[in-house]
Amino acid sequence: SISSPSRGPTAARHQDGWNGLSHEAFAIVSRRDYASEAIKGAVVGIDLGTTNSCTAVMEGKQAKVLENAEGARITPSAVAFTADGERLVGMPAKRQAVTNPKNTFNATKRLIGRQNDDPVVQKDIKNVPFKSVRASNGDAWVEAHGKLYSPSQTGVFVIRGEIHKWGHLGGED
């Protein structure tokens, strides 16, 4: 495959189209003018980032980035578990990292789809205080208070926090 510098490192041009799309499907998708169609309901976009996440809603033809409960437009992609089992997400989780580093996860997106024995995982895990464990299928998961969580699960916790922002505007889950 050939990387496309204009589309970022995750977009790859394959022999059969972009990211596996056939040439015909890619041509149809890229020609379609989605902005000219009437869209019913709100359009919400969530960016689950490795370090930070954010949510935007379309207001007419402009995207408006929503603020979290603390008034910030970005939220740390962090998840923490307190000793009594409470789950914290975002800035409260990031603050918890000072006093509870082994049960506070950040940058777990880097672990998605990786085996625990992957050299990249082993290198990255040396730089974080939380524990990476080998799941039954060999994937890299994280552990807090004896419970295991997949990197995808921690991402879902962050996304749920972002969806909560949308709920405050009267949106539906």
Question: Can you give me a brief rundown of this structure?
Answer:
Keywords: ATP-binding, Nucleotide-binding. This protein is of the alpha+beta class and 173 residues long.
Topology record:
Elements: E1 2-4, E2 8-14, E3 17-18, H1 23-31, E4 44-48, E5 52-59, E6 62-65, E7 75-76, E8 78-81, E9 87-89, H2 91-99, E10 104-106, H3 119-125, E11 131-134, E12 140-144, E13 147-149, H4 151-167
Antiparallel strand pairs: 1-2, 2-3, 4-5, 5-6, 5-7, 8-9, 8-10, 11-12, 12-13
Task: Give a written overview of the molecule.
The chain is of the alpha+beta class. It contains four helices and 13 strands. It has helices at 23-31, 91-99, 119-125, 151-167; strands spanning 2-4, 8-14, 17-18, 44-48, 52-59, 62-65, 75-76, 78-81, 87-89, 104-106, 131-134, 140-144, 147-149. The relative contact order is 0.13.
